[in-house]
Amino acid sequence: MPTINLMICFCIKTREVGSERKFFVNICHTDAIPAPKDISEKELSEILESDEISEFRVPMSIGEVRTEKDKKNEEAKAADVAVHPSFFNKIEQSQLFKSFFITIVFEGLKDKYGIVCNDEKIILKNRKAFGTLQMHRIQQREVDEKMKSGSRSLIEEITGSTGSEGAKPLIETISSNSIENRVPEYRLFRRKAQPNCLVGEFKFPDVISVKELRLDLGEDRIVIESTSKNYLLDIFIPLVIRQSSCTSTFNKSTKILTVTMPLVGG
């Protein structure tokens, strides 16, 4: 079972029907997942409007649903969904593909876990992901029926009876087991001599070279990943980082990555 390393794309926020608990879906992409057939907006529209059975389907990996804490320290649920990069490009470039994709993502979550969410779904502008992404392992390919012959609306076509004879799916779910990422030991502090500069020290005892690490700094976010050693740290801070002035060094003896982050206003 090959391991899938996910690239974060965007995050959808909604709420579960009944409990009203927040539910976040991290949309990601990876070339470990097969690409769907390359179709145009016109072809997709024709598929959705047609009564005929279609061969088109979208392979995706739906990870396990987990519970995490949000910024208010309230419990929220989250899941990671991944598609091939070529299909994600279509989602970015076309509102039709994006709306179609979001619909089948939540139908997939409903079919796999019985989770039903509100119609209101918000793509977060200032946050690409909620919680800690989990690595996926492809376990098997399962094809779920999503289209009912004779249906006309987008929702009916996707959520039609699975018992429809000869029906073809619009979504192909790749079952996956999630692997918990390791979170490195770290500390964040400001020196008295430089109060307007945040310093982070992150320990990776089994990392040999800085080439094994990927550092991504946002205005209020620190992401450090090592896919080879299965580390992932993704944290938000209540400060604004001056990204263009940040520096980092990795000490091979102590195995500590030091990140110096000047703050806006400093």
The outline comes out as elongated
State the end-to-end CA separation: 49 Å
- Main sheet attributes: strand count, strand direction, barrel closure: 9 strands, mixed
User: What is the tally of helical segments?
Assistant: 4
Q: Can you count the beta strands? A: 16
The quaternary organization reads as single chain
* Structural classification: alpha+beta
Give start-end ranges of low-pLDDT stretches. Answer: 138-169
Level of helix content?
Answer: 10-25%
Q: SSE order in H/E notation?
A: EEEHEEEHHEEHEEEEEEEE
Rounded mean pLDDT score: 79
Estimated share of beta-strand residues: 35-45%
Q: What gyration radius follows from the Cα positions, in whole Å?
A: 21 Å
Folded structure, characterized:
- There is one protein chain.
- The chain is an alpha+beta fold and 266 residues long.
- It contains 4 helices and 16 strands.
- The chain has helices spanning 41-49, 85-93, 95-113, 154-159; strands at residues 3-4, 7-15, 22-29, 58-62, 66-69, 75-83, 122-123, 135-143, 171-179, 185-191, 194-203, 214-217, 221-226, 231-236, 247-251, 256-262.
- The strands form 3 sheets. Strands 1, 2, 3, 4, 5, 6, 7, 8 and 9 form a 9-stranded mixed β-sheet that branches. It has a 4-stranded antiparallel β-sheet with strand order 10-11-16-15, with no helix packed on it.
- Helix 2 packs across helix 3.
- The chain is elongated and about 70 Å long.
- 26% of the residues are buried.
- Residues 138-169 have low confidence and may be disordered.
